[in-house]
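SECTION: protein entry
WANTED: fold as tokens:
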Amino acid sequence: MHIWVDADACPVAIKEILYRAAVRSQIPLTLVANKPLNVPRSPFIRALQVERGFDVADDEIAQRLAPGDLVITADVPLAAAVVARGGHAIDPRGERYTAENVREHLAMRDLLAKLRETGVQTEGTAPLDQADRKRFADQLDRFLTQVGKA
């Protein structure tokens, strides 16, 4: 198993949780971004810089993903692709994307995009808070425990 991170927009607090989890579990973690990233020195952690461009990091993750891998992303289309390919996806707020709920997330994303196109003001995402960080850490721990039992 491998953990992939859509790192361009991933909050620092979430990256720090992931660093600790990768070292503790000894599961490889790769952060994919279109800018240079500083990551801790560890045989389990690496950064992969891709070219700038729309969805380049997402496409790189989707291409490298193996069934059973975990992807951390807030990008719903990437999460849908991950789930379709037999991977697992968790967003930085601790929501786990599944085959059952990813279509709903895509539909909501599309609806909000259409509303914005027509000029309707939609609420943006609230800043990541302590409850979000805890929810993410708990979801990640549950997932890693589940994988450890497999």
